[in-house]
Amino acid sequence: MSRHDNRQAHEIRPVTLEKGIAPHAQGSVLVSFGNTKVICAATIEESVPRWMKEQNKTGGWITAEYSMLPYSTLTRKQRDSSRGRVDGRGTEIQRLIGRSLRAVVDLEKLGQRTLWVDCDVLQADGGTRTAAITGASVAVELAGQWLVQQGKIKELPVKNRVAAVSVGIVNGEVLVDLDYIEDRDACVDMNVVMTDKLDFVELQGSGEENVFSPTQLEQMVAAARGGITRLLQIQKTATT
Ligand code: UDP
What we know:
Layout: E1 15-19, E2 27-33, E3 36-45, H1 50-54, E4 61-68, H2 80-83, H3 88-102, H4 107-110, E5 114-123, H5 128-149, E6 162-170, E7 173-176, H6 180-185, E8 188-195, E9 200-207, H7 214-239
Parallel strand pairs: 4-5
Antiparallel strand pairs: 1-2, 2-3, 3-5, 6-7, 6-8, 8-9
Helix pairs in contact: 3-5, 5-7
The chain binds uridine-5'-diphosphate.
Uridine-5'-diphosphate binds at residues 73-74, 77, 89, 124-129, 180, 183.
C-alpha cells in the first residue's frame, strides 16, 4: 500500500541539512525532514554551571532547549513567555535531545565550557524531535570543529554522530518517518535514537489506545535502523 505522499513504507522523507543558518552560533543547521523544519544552533559559553564547580567536576556541560515557533503549527502556538507556563511536551523533548547528545559528546575533551543547543521548530509536520536530534548532532559537530580550528581544544569532542527517526504502525503496516497525517492515524508510535555505531541511545514507544507485539516491536526497530542508516549518510556528507 502506498503512502499519501507516495513513499515506500520504509522510506524517510527527503532530508536536507543547510549549514551556517545562524552565523552567530558556533555551529548551526536548518534540518528538513520533508515539511518538518528545525533550526539547530550550538553556542559555546566559556563557563560551566555552578553545581559543576561546587562539586569539582572536570570537563564541560551540554544542555538542549526545544521550542516550536508560534507560526510553526497549523494554528498559531502561543509562546511560553506570553502564556506564562512552560509546555510539558517541550520540556520532555528537550531532555530527550540533551540525553541523546550527552551520549555522544566527550565532555572531558570539551573542557570547562558549556555547549548550549537550541532547537527551534520553524515548520511542524510530525517528527520534530527526531529531526531536532539529527540536526543537533550536526550543529554540535560543527561547533566542535570550530573549537579545534580556533586552537581552543586539540581534538574533536564528539565520539559519535547520533540520529533519530520515528516509526509507527498505521493500518497494520510499519511506516518510517511519519508525517503529521500518518502520526495522527498511527495506533503505535515510536521514536528511535541511535549512534553511528547503530547502538541505541533511546527507544520511546507507546501504543496509542493500543498494544503491540514483540514481533511488531522487532519490525519497528529494524525499520528504524534502516531510516537511521540513511540519515547517518546524509549527516556524514554534510560534515566532512
Ligand atoms: N503538533 C502541533 N502542535 C503541538 C504539538 C504537536 O501542531 O502543540 C503537531 C506537529 O505537527 C508535530 C506533530 O503534531 O510535529 C506530532 O507531535 P508529537 O508530540 O508526536 O512530536 P513530534 O512528532 O513532532 O516529535
